[in-house]
Amino acid sequence: xxxxxxxxxxPEGTEARTKRARAVRYxxxxxxFVVPFGVLFLLFYVLPIGYAIxxxxxxVERSGTFGPAREVFGGLVQYQRVFENGxxxxxxxxxxxxxxxxxxVMLGLALLLALLLDxxxxxxxRFFRLAFFVPYAIPGVIAAIMWGFLYxxxxxxxxxxxxxxxxxSAGFVLWAMANVVTWVxxxxxxxxxxxxxxxxxxxxYEAARIDGAGPVRIAWSIKIPLVMPAIVLTTVFSIIGTLQxxxxxQVFRSFSSAVSSTYTPNLTVYSxxxxxxxxxxxxxxxxxxxxxxVLSFAFLKFTQRRGVQ
Length: 309
Hints:
Blueprint: H1 12-56, E1 58-62, E2 69-73, H2 77-83, H3 86-119, H4 125-137, H5 140-151, H6 159-164, H7 173-198, H8 202-210, H9 215-226, H10 228-243, H11 247-252, H12 265-273, H13 278-308
Antiparallel strand pairs: 1-2
Helix pairs in contact: 1-13, 2-13, 3-7, 3-10, 4-7, 5-7, 10-13, 12-13
C-alpha cells in the first residue's frame, strides 16, 4: 500500500502579512530594550560631558579684593591656563611612561597565565581562575593601602627588603604603584584572554597536532594570533585606565612625600576642584578626555593597519 502525501500551498499574500506582523511585533519590543540604556547613557555620560565643557568656558571674577565672586563667560581662557600649566603636562608624561612600561608587562603576564590555564598542564583550573581574579575583587583603595604598608620601611613585615630599597622614594614610587596596578588587573585581563581562548574550535588544534606542531608552536602560531582582538581590547582598556590613574597616587601621598598633588592628571583635576576652581578643573578634564580618546583611537588605527598588512 502506498501512502500519498498532499501539500497545502500557502498563499504568498498570507506569508507576507505574517512576516510584516512579526516585524511590527519585534519592532515594538525594541524601545523597551533601547530606551533604558539611552536614558542612563544620556544622564550619566552625555550630560556630564556637556556640563564639563560648559563649565570650562566660564571664569570667576571678583569686584575688589573681598568682593563677591561671580561666574562670567571667559571663552578659552581656562584652556590657555591648561596649556600653560607645566605640572599638568609633566603628569601626562609621567603616566605615559607608566603605561609604556606597565601595560605590556601586565598584559604579557595575563597572556602567559591564560595560555597556562588553557594548555592542560595546570590542574585545578577553577581554583587558579578564581585565585588570579581575586585581586581584582579588592577595591583599588584597599589594595593601595595594603601595598603602601608593605612598602613602608617602618611598617612592612619585609623590613630586610624595604630597608635596602626605598620603594617610596622619588625614583621608585611610580613603579611601586605600577606593581599595585599590575597585581590588581592581571587576573581581570587574564579572564578576557582566557575566554577568547575557549572560543577557539578544538578542530584547529587537532589539525595542528596532525601537522606535527607541539604545544609551544600551537600557542605561538595559533592561539596568540586568534586571541589578538582580545589583547587589543584589553590594551585599549589599559590605556584609558592609565590616564585615569587616581586611587593609587592619592593613597600613596600618605606614605611618600614624592607624590605631589599634581602627580597624575586625574590627581591634578581632583586637587584643582578642591581649591575650589571648578572651571579650571573642568578644562583639565576635557583636555584629559581628548588625550585619552586620541591615544586610544590612534592605537586602534595602528592595530587595524597592521592587521590589514
